[in-house]
Every structure is written in structure tokens, then in C-alpha cells.
Amino acid sequence: MNKKGSRVVVVFTLLLLVSSQFFSQSRDAIEIVPPKSYSQPKQRQARELHIVLDVAVNAVLSETFKQSEIAATLIDLRDPNDLKTASFRGGEKIYPASVVKMFYMNALERQLEDGKVTMTNELARGLKDMIVVSSNEATQYILDVLTDTSSGAELPQKEFDAWQSKRNRVNRFYSAMGYSNINVNQKTFCEDAYGIEQQSRGYKGQNRNMLTTDATARLLAEIVLGRMNTPDRTKTMMDLMHRDPFAKTNDTDSQDTGFSGKALLDMNMTGVKLWSKAGWTSRARHDAAYIETPDGLKFVLVIFTENHANDRETIPKVVTGVIEGLRATKRST
Which residue among 82, 176, 272, 313 sits deepest, i.e. has the most Cβ atoms within 10 Å of its Cβ? Predict the structure, then answer.
């Protein structure tokens, strides 16, 4: 090779290195990344918790409510250094409805902390409405902010691939922390998705949001324990998810009183504290809850049910069974 050819090779190589470094830096500037000190939580399966959860779940099963229509995960948070857990079909991928909004809230707080997103009055309004009143429109806005994407017409395949890569930003964030068997890259809608949003779903729903109760319980536990962000941002998330099971309301599907909160109300557990994010569609009824009782129980309980959207008793019955079981276990130790 002559000198001219050698120079061309050198220049081309330098350009590749520079462009690669620039691409890496620009990508790092927008990617959602875990805290630098982050490590996966250590959880251990606990036989006594499995007994408690199995009894509580089996108590609601019947000819009309099948085992395949419910999944649940329980994590005992009384000792943050010894997280005991149990699950009932906890690894099953299930459409999460509005429970996915908790994942978007956590991702947004991460971006705010890293200075990759700037808080505005409008963003604060959207975040609050997404979690407090479970607004789908607010969720659409938050996911646009997180991924630099927007709804619109279908795109040619090459352009769509670039769009979809950006939309997968939240998935990459949770994958980097060891979350698996989940998909959190879709907006929530009151009716249906259209255009590129339907293209992203795969038209037949192949790419819809999917969560497991195991992953959902893990995230809620990590938020509660302050593992995901600073104390101030943790408090912000907890404040948004705080519910009052004794709230006066005529809404039978209120996040305060219509899901896990109903059990606490029925048991007249004054002094109890509840944080949660519910999900409800025409086919699904879910709740992800963290509960602290006056007698010292501290636990995360995530319950997903399918094909019984208007069944307002099953989730509270499981919650009641878990509380009674944990109390019995506590007395025997």
C-alpha cells in the first residue's frame, strides 16, 4: 500500500473512532442508567411466606375463578437486609394495565436526578396525574419525555426501527438492573392505539406491555427501601403512591378504597398505611401495594387477576388472608 493509501486508512480509522466515541457519549446523555452504586437486591424464598400466600390465594379459587387467572408475589420488608419472598405464578407475563405507570414514574425520577430531564410545572402535573389519578393521557406524555418519541403515522421499516429503539429506552434501563421477562415500552390508552403506536404493538398485540408480579413487587420494594434514588426522590414517589383506605368516596374503583385498601377498610385497621398503584381494564384487575400495619407488619403484595375485572372482592380477600397469615406466623416465632 502506498503512502496516500495509508493516510486514507489512518484518517478513516480516526473518523470511525471519533464517531463511535461521539455516538457513545450522545447515547449516554439520553439513556436511563441505574444509580452508580446500584446492585440487585438479595431476596430469598421463604417457606413460611409461601404457605401464607398459597393459603390466601387458594381461598379465592373456585370453579369460576381459576388458578390461571391470578398471580401474586409477597415480599416481607421488616428486615431490609433479609428480604423474604414468595410467589404464586409470579413469573407469568401478564398485561399490567396501569401498574406499568409505576415503572415510568421511577424511570422519570432517575432521569431527573441525572439532569437528563428538567422538571417543569407541566411535567410535575403530568407525573402527578399519571400516578394519583392514573391518567392515560399523562402517561402518554411522560413516555414521550422519557424516550424522545411521539405518536403519529406509521413509518417505513427503517425509520420505524430507529423510533422503536428510542421507545425501548425504558426496557434497557430495567434490563441493566437485572429485571427480566418484562416489556415496558407502550403507552396506555382509554380506547385503543393507532398509527405508529399500533405498529409498535405489533398490530396483534405481540409487543404490548407485559409484567410479572415478581418484577413488579421487586420494583415497589426497591422504591420503598430507597434503593432506586435519593431520599428526596424516593419521598416524591412514595407521596404520589400514598393512599387513604378510609377516604370518603363513591368510586368503587378508587385506588384508595377499591383494591387493597378495601381489605384494610373492612378490617377496620386504623393506623394502617398504604402505598399502591392499581390497574384496571375491561379484562384485568391488578394492584401493587406496600402496607405497614400498626402491629409491625411491613410487606409488598402484588396481585394480578384476569377475566374478572369487575370482581371487587378477590384482591381484598387475598390481602386479608396475607395479613392474617403473617400475623399468625409472627405469633408463632
Answer: 272
| Residue from 59, 56, 83 nearest 72 by CA | 56
pLDDT digits (tens, 9 = 90+) for 123-158: 999 999 999 999 999 999 999 999 999 999 999 999
Q: Please tell me the distance from the alpha carbon of residue 142 to that of residue 140, in angstroms, as a whole number.
A: 6
Cβ atoms of residues 314 and 295 within 8 Å? no
Q: What is the 3-state secondary structure (H, E, C) of 197-224?
A: HHHHHCCCCCCCCEECHHHHHHHHHHHH
Q: Give 10 or 219, the one with higher predicted confidence.
A: 219
Task: Give percent above pLDDT 70 in the chain.
Answer: 91
Which residue stretches of 98-212 are H helix?
Answer: 101-113, 121-132, 136-147, 157-167, 169-176, 196-201
Please tell me the distance from the alpha carbon of residue 175 to that of residue 36, in angstroms, as a whole number. 15
Q: Which residues, 6+ apart, have CB-to-CB distance to 269 below 8 Å?
A: 245, 293, 294
Alpha carbons 316 and 254: distance in angstroms, whole number = 13
Q: How many CB atoms sit inside 10 A of residue 313's CB?
A: 12
- Rounded-to-integer distance, Cα 105 and Cα 90, Å: 22
Q: For the chain, give the number of residues.
A: 333
Beta-sheet pairing, 43-45 with 83-88:
parallel
User: How far apart (Å, rounded) are the C-alpha atoms in residues 82 and 44?
Assistant: 8
Quote the CA–CA distance of 218 and 241 in Å, as a whole number: 16
Q: What are 275-308's pLDDT values in tens digits? A: 999 999 999 999 999 999 999 999 999 999 999 9
**Domains of the chain and any CATH numbers:** 44-92+212-333 (3.30.450), 95-211 (no CATH)
CB 181 within 8 A of CB 91: yes
